[in-house]
Amino acid sequence: MARVEGKVAIITGGASGLGLASARRMAEEGATVILADINTEQGERAAADVPGAEFAQLDVTREAAWIELIDSVVARHGRLDVLVNCAGIVELASIEDTTEDIWRRVNAVGTDGTFFGCKHALRVMKQAGRGSIINMCSTASIQGGPGIFAYAASKSAIRGMTKSVAVHSVQNGFGVRCNSVHPGNMETPMLSGVREIVRQASPEAAKSMEEIWIGEPQDVANMVLFLASDESGAVNGAALVVDNTTTITEGRVPA
Ligand SMILES: NC(=O)c1ccc[n+]([C@@H]2O[C@H](COP(=O)([O-])OP(=O)(O)OC[C@H]3O[C@@H](n4cnc5c(N)ncnc54)[C@H](O)[C@@H]3O)[C@@H](O)[C@H]2O)c1
Question: Is 241 close to ligand 1, i.e. is its CB under 6 Å away?
Answer without folding.
Answer: no
